[in-house]
Amino acid sequence: MFIPDFFEGSPADISWYPPTTQEHKEKLGNFFSTKAAPPQTLSKIPNVVAEGNKLAPGGNFQSWSILGYCWGGKIATLASGAENKLFKAVAQCHPAMVDPNDAKVVNIPMVFLASKDETPKDVKDFEANLKVPKYVETFPTQIHGWMAARSDLENPEVRKEYERGYKTVLEFFHEHS
């Protein structure tokens, strides 16, 4: 697994999330529209893959899949669009900025794991627009971020769903990569 630093050592201030004030909302919004704008990030992905392939036995992995959490779910979805030639499968977990129109151009199998905090209509419409093999599930007891930094893995129910989420992604990638 490769985890690129798309923010180049300058992430958003953790105190801005979740945004509890108008100032935090504005600062976070500014960060994601400038420093972390999807077009800037998408252009970095081929270099990540190229660098990763240098570490592979023989100089090239057989296949690549892409997984994104929150903001990264948007990036993973956009990277799996019509221009995609790099990835065989895509996963997004508790994605942010869900736009059902993005699903229309996804060209590889997708697993989409939503939390209780994603808008149900957006999740349903996104799923309806996917024209590829897919697995879509909402984890109704889990918060946005349960598969990443916001999990309380000391809570047995959260840990169980966390593990089930990763098992779901791994099985999907195994089947489609």
Can you walk through the features of this model?
The chain has 177 residues and is an alpha/beta fold. It is built from 6 helices and 4 strands, in the order αααβαββαβα. The protein has a 4-stranded parallel β-sheet, sandwiched between helices. α4 (71-79) links the parallel β1 and β2. The radius of gyration is 16 Å and the shape is globular. It starts with 21 loop residues before the first helix and ends with a helix. The mean pLDDT is 93.
Highlighted features:
four-stranded parallel β-sheet, globular, 177 residues, single chain, alpha/beta
Provide a quick synopsis of the model.
With 177 residues, the chain is α/β, with parallel strands linked by helices. The chain has helices at residues 22-33, 38-42, 45-54, 71-79, 120-129, 156-176; strands at 65-70, 89-95, 110-115, 134-139.
